[in-house]
Each structure stands twice: as structure tokens, then as C-alpha cells.
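Teaching assistant here, posting this on the class forum so everyone can see the example we discussed in section. The complex has two components, and the goal was to see what a joint structure prediction looks like when all of them are supplied at once.
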Amino acid sequence: MEYNPSQIESKWAKFWEQNQTYKVENGGSKPKFYILNMFPYPSGAGLHVGHPLGYIATDIFARYKRLKGFNVLNPMGYDSFGLPAEQYAIQTGTHPAVTTVKNINTFRSQLDKIGFSFDWSREVRTSDPAYYKWTQWIFMQLFNHYFDKDAQKALKVSDLVAHFEKEGNAKVNAVCDEDTPSVSAAEWNAMSEKEQQIFLLHYRLTMPEEAYVNWCPAMGSVLSNDEVKDGVSERGGYPVERKLMKQWAMRITAYADRLLEGLNNIDWSESLKEQQRNWIGRSQGASVKFDLALDPSVKIEVFTTRVDTIYGVTFMVLAPEHELVDSITTPEQREEIENYKKWTASRSEVDRMSEGKKVTGAFTGAYCINPFDGAKVPIYIADYVLAGYGTGAVMAVPSGDQRDWNFAKHFNLPIIPILDAQKDIETAADNTKEGRYINSGIINGMTYKEATQTLINWLEERGLGKGKVQYRLRNAVFSRQRYWGEPVPVYWKEGVPYLIDESELPLELPSIDEYLPTATGEPPLGRATDWKYKGEYEYELSTMPGWAGSSWYFYRYMDAQNDQEFASKAALDYWRQVDLYVGGTEHAVGHLLYSRFWNLFLYDLGLVPEKEYAKKLVNQGMIQGRSLFIHLKTGRSLHVQIQFADEKDRLFKDKYVAMTQIDNRFEGIDTEGDIAWQTDDAGKQFVVLTPEVEKMSKSKYNVVNPDDMIAQYGADCFRMYEMFLGPITDAKPWSTSGITGVAGFLRKFWSLMYDINGKFLVNDNEPTKDELKILHTCIKKVNDDIERFGFNTCVSAFMVCVNELKAAKCSKRAILNELTILLAPFAPFIAEEAWTILGNTPSVLNAAYPNANEAYLVSDAVVYPIAINGKTRGEISFPTGTAKDVIEAAVPDMEVVKKWVNGSGIKKIVVVPGRMINVVI
RNA sequence: GCCUUGGUGGUGGAAUGGUAGACACGCAGGACUUAAAAUCCUGUGAGCAUUAGCUCGUGCGGGUUCGAGUCCCGCCCGAGGUACCA
């Protein structure tokens, strides 16, 4: 019998389905284990070879845990709202829901081919109204709660209102907007309903807020940074500017401290936790108000982590978007400031930060006053100050901060030393906190600690500033000016947002004629006709962002069909939290922070049992793709869809034209004028593309699909090959060379059961000591390596085992049975087939996992390498367990040692038992 | 720029501070074959010597150690993220 993967694989796929092998119950006597993959966005390009990498690893782990006696939940679903389906809708008019279902079906059939042990009865889709009903429901809870600092948790807004009615907001210790006015009970009670509602928005955990966005006037829409390339829109190449817009936001900053704290209690990689800590960016400092020189009633507030350096301030820098810029600029400087603002508005935040070494800025002509010494400080604007962080204004201390120093040198501003320990500040800034202050008024002679406290006290006494904790973390923008997302369950009445009634959930997406913004620049939902709350009030027209649905989906898997609750208490109490979460580092500070935030909120409400939803997280490295770029004469460069290029990275003109017909990014590009065509020997025109290795993604047009490989080699081979590529945590570019090695291994495994003539080889002879050693070495290695996620070395271990069994001509049932169980998590199809061939009853997943017996692993002798001064010069064998001093005594008499010692004496002999010997001469 | 992460043969990679390159791919030579494919066997870090053997070698420069791919310090380069891709 020959190894025929396609036959075996369809046979067992059918068996698993008919026997519901992967159906999981909530409950039972076995211990539970919840394994979760980050769910995919079902793109039109289908599953690419990067997706299954993590899924295969978790599938191996799930099957392994199951064989070890756990009740394993291993679900899968789709993050099915997203831009690509909407783009396709804009181009073709096809409703995104239609595209999405089609794409999901493609994904599903691809996933099925790989043989995952997912329990599909628990599938979720974020774009399904039955699912997003609960996303909207959670949004409503956020709207109805505020964060109480005394209780350190979310409490009901209705309680807050009760408090306002009795005592106003003076004694309320809650997270709220910076500019929240204080009100007395009388003032509150005198407010109209509308005024009260507007006031409460200062406290709600989700609220409308002004935020900067990439606005593309030509397209009438907001773009992601991803859609902006070189300062213009990727599609069409239109100019993009930064614009302030009213957006729904989530008050994630309220949870900043608890999000930091929670990191200490979860088993996530240190690097990932560090990224979250840096993203949250807690810094202790002070806010200080500077009076405007011409009008002391105008104050400019800055946040600084080094208030001790305040006597070294020689200028002030505002973000170009700072609200005071226009009013303080003098007539003489107006033109310069306007030009600079225009220039920065055309650049994204990333652009602005990434040119950090190039100093740019403009002088407003205005001055402010240093509150400590009354010094007149010139006010500049510069793009290294970001509007979104802190107050959008910094006090510049060139002697202590390198960016300020660069700026001062460029604009010829003074640099004042402030600490006697500062090094030569004419060549670079020195941010030391050592030494004692000089040139520093009331803090002269003090140390860093004394000075900071003295200054803060001075400021607080005069109401000019205060000690403050600042977070880099900003409130998360929650609106998207798009169609294909969850509708926000809010309607507007006289400019005030209200929640719709809970009984009206889900608020479903209305159908619209075109998936574009309206003529007046409103989001696509503005096109819906007769879409009014109670036929009267306008619904919120923006939709929720991609991260909404993914912030709680792990709970839905526990009880996916429930239409009364997002998940039942019984299901939540049984599964509690995810035991193992696997996904890419690219989600480190997006999804993984937002979902922790929602989880803490749900925990505060008593709706979920754990403060952290994912106990352990493993970062899978990304499979990278090879992208190709076309450079236009205009200076723009664009990704080219890889399937249109030839193997030499050339793009021929006919292919280019074919591509432009299906890809509207190329609209407006002049085929003749903008592209530097070359001509080959046959007279055909082509252009050479530039390759680059980067993440595999549909948006980079570099995806590789697994289907062909599976058709050719089978799913078992594909699974093992993906694991064999390298450690799961490492990023690596995709390559198919080498898959034949894994294919050869599977054939070799098969050949232990049938020879090339189809003769059945399996026998019941007693295994020898050597054969047991081969098997148990493999058991031990595979066991250890699965536990530490070293799946690539597991595959090597299997190869070694099969190579050695083959060399020993071993086809003994006792050996092959155990090897088959061991192999089952990796290559489930061939394992099921082998399991029945060996005379057992399927499924192999119901077998007992073998344990390594140390007794089979010990050898009679240990071969010691002998090093002279650390360099290996030979080896010698000692019986296992030979004492250290016996070995030491034997060393000087050995040939190699004598040769190298050659007269000079032995200084030292290092013997590491069971390892090696080093002779120092 | 900032945060995170990685850099080992021609390639993917292996290596609790203890024989660098396991296991594969590729390549070369051989067997089988009319021939090719498939399969099997042998060799394969670089250099010198071509027998023994020797020297160099884990991005670069230092350091700790009997011993460093592994630990420490300083650089260089790639990748991911950078708040509307998901």
C-alpha cells in the first residue's frame, strides 16, 4: 500500500465530521483548557500561508492537551468587519456582507483542508447582528458608566447624577475631562435636561471628543495612516491633511494604572508587556502655567517631567495645531507661521516624528513669562511637539534635552547650564539629574529630589501649577467614517447623544445606495433613507472601529448561541479565562490593550470572572512576504500585485494594464508618462520592480496561498513544514524550498508499515533496548519541546526517530503505536490512518499519551570532549557515572593532553560531569 | 525619531555558559535506469595542507569567564508597532 495523502485526508475529515470528534461541552470531570487564536479578517485573497502558522501551533497544542486528558476549547471565528470589503463595495456596488460571506466560505474551506480541531459550532462573526448586538450592548454599558477613583472601578452614571443632585461635583473623585467645570447641587438642579446630558459627557466612559484625523478633501473621507503614502492618499494620490473632527472616544485613560498593574499578573512575554507599559507611558511630573507676556490673562500650560530644569527654559514650543497659535502670532510673523502650519498639516504624525533629526519650526513673535524668574521666553511652533500628547506645549530646556538643544542651535537661542554636573553643553545636551543646581533662583545648591519638591510646592501655593501624572496613552478614538462596521447605538436630539432603548438591539446596518461619503462630507450612513430613531431623531452616522468586535470575542466562544446574554454565567464560570492565547506581536498595543481594557470594565460590572482574560500569551512571529514596488517618475511608489510580475521581478506592460483594470490605486497614473519603461530583446516593454521583505498582507499585495501546496503534498506535510520552518516566535520570510524534506519524512514513516512492494511489515516482536531508546528519546524530546513551544525541533526529533527506526529495520507494533500517538497532534490524518492500520480503534485522540521512561535513555558510557584552553582537541569515553576525581586523575596521561601540554605544566583541569573536560595549560 | 525584536554555512534553522552548524533544503559525486523522474549511498562552514593535521569562523568593536552564538558595554543593519490595516 502506498502513502496517498489526499485519499487519507478526505477519509478522516469525513470521519471527524460524522463523529463530531471536535465538539466540546461546557463541563465534565476533565480539567478545562481554553486555547485561543487571534481570529482572522477574512480577506478576499483568502487564507495566506502566514495565517495557519499560529493555528497549526495551537492545534498541535490542543490535540496534545486533549491526549493528556484535558477538556480543550479550541474555537475559531472571523473579525469580519473591515475596510477591504468596503473598498470592494465602493468599486463594484456589491454589499460588503455579500463579499464577506463569500470570503468566509473561502477561508472555511481552506481551514478545513488543513485539518484543524476547531469546534465550529462555536464560530463567531463580528459582522453578524446576533454578535454585534452584544458589542453594541457593551458600548451602552460604557456610556452608562464612569470611572470612580475612590472605588477604583467603573460605577453607574445614574449614581453620579444622584450625587450631583445632592452635593454637586466638588467631592466627586472621578476620571473626567480636563476642562470639566465645577457645579454645585443648585447649579446642577437648575440645568436643563440638555445641559445635564452635555455635562455628563465629561464623565462617561465613552463620549464624543475632538480628535485629529487624516482628512482627504478630494475623496471627502477620513483615511487611515495605512492609506496615506508619502503625504498623499494611496488611492488616487490626492493630498491629505490633518483635521480636527468630533469623534466617539473611549476613556481608556481611566484604566491606565490598572492596565499597568495587571501586566504583573499575566504570563505574557516581557517584551510585549514592556511595549504596553511604554504605550501607556506613565510619567510623573508637573504642569506649569506660563503667562503670555502681552496678556497675563492668557496662560500656556505645559507638562514637564523635569520641572527642576525650569530655570534653564529659553524658549517655548507649541504644536502647530495648538489652539493659541493663531491668536498670539504677531502680524509680522503671520505669513511664516501660516506657511509652516500648512506644511505640517500635510504630514502624518509618523512622518513628523521620523524626521527627528531635521530641525524645523517657526517663531510666533509672541513671548511668555517664566513664573519663577519672570524671564521673557520666545514662543515657537515646531512639529516635534505633538498636539495629542500632554498639553501640546513644551517648555524647552536646551541644556538638558537633546531635541531642544538641536532646536536652540538651529534658531540661535541661548543654552543655559543648570546643574554643576552637566558636561560641556556646547556640544550636546546633558540630561543628568546629578549634582547641584546653578543659575536656578530658589533651588540653587539643591539636589534633584529637593529641587523638584520645592518647585512643585511653590507652584501649588500660587495656583500656577501642580504635581501631575501624565500618560502617553490617549483616549481611544472609537468612530470610523465608514459603512462596514457596527452601528453605534446612539441617536442625536438637539445636539445631544442618547442611547437607543436596549430592547431595540441590535441596531442593524441600513442599506445604502453607494458606499461613499455624502455630498456634504457625512459618513456613508448619511445616505440611508428613512433611517431615523423612532422615525424622528438622527442616528449616529459613524460606525465602530475594527477593534470593537475583537475586544470581547473570547467570551462569545464560551456560549456562542446565547441570545439572552453575551455569555451565560455558567459558561463564564466554567471556562473563566483563556489559558493560552497565540497571535502576532503586531497586535501588542492595539487589540491586546483595548481588549484588556474592555475586560477590566466588564469585570468591574461583575460580568466576567477574571481581571485578565488571557493567562498566557505566546507571540507568533510573522511569516513575511516578498513585496514588489513600482517607482513612478512622480516620486510615488506603489505595491504591485505579485502575481503580475515575472520571476525576475519585471512587470510587462500588458500585465500592468491588466492590473490597472482591477486595481483603482492606479487611477490617474499616466501609463506612458509616469513609468520608466524599458524594452527587452523581443521588443516588449517592461519595468523592473524593487523587492522588499515585509509582513504578508493583502494591503501589500504579497500574499501566498497554501492551497497548491496542500493539493500537492497533503495537509499533514503542510502542517509539519510550517512548523519545521523555525521557531514559532520568529519572523521569517516564506519559502517553499525544503517542503520535500518533510514529505520524505512522512513517506519514510509510512514505509515502516509497508515496504515499496506493499508488503505489510508490522510485527509483534519484543522491542530491543536500542529501539526503546530511540522511541523514548523521541517521546522525551517531543514532550519537552511542545511544552516550550519548540515545534520545529519536535519535527526534527520525529525525523531522527524515523531515520533510526528505519536503519534498525524496526516495524514493531509496540514501538509504532506509541510513535503514532506522539505524531497525532502534528500530522493528524496520517496518524489516524496508521492507528487503524496498526489495529486500533479510532480516534487516535482517545488514546493515552506515552510517557518517556528515563530507564531507557541512559547509555553505558559517556563520550567526553577534551578541550585544551577551551579548544576541543579530542574525546574520550568513560563509563556512565564515573566520578569526577577519577576522570581528573586520568586526564594527564591521555595522548592528546600530553601532545598539547608538551613540557609546560597543567594549571587546572575542569571536569563537568556528563559534559566535558577542559585542560588549562 | 521613539518602543519592541532579530542578525549563526549557499538556504531554513539546531545548540540548560560546555564538541558551533542537529534536522532539512540545495549542491557535488556515485548506484539503479536505454534515458529521465523517483529512490538509495557518500561528501558538503571557509582557508591551508589534500594523509596526519593546522588556522579562522555565530553582524562589527570591546569586556567578564577555565570556557561566550549564549552574559555585560558600545556600534551597524533588517523586521514589527507608532493610535482610522486588522
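For the discussion questions: Residues 422 and 430 of chain A are 6 Å apart (CA to CA). Chain A is about 35% helix and 20% strand. Think about how each of these relates to the inputs above.
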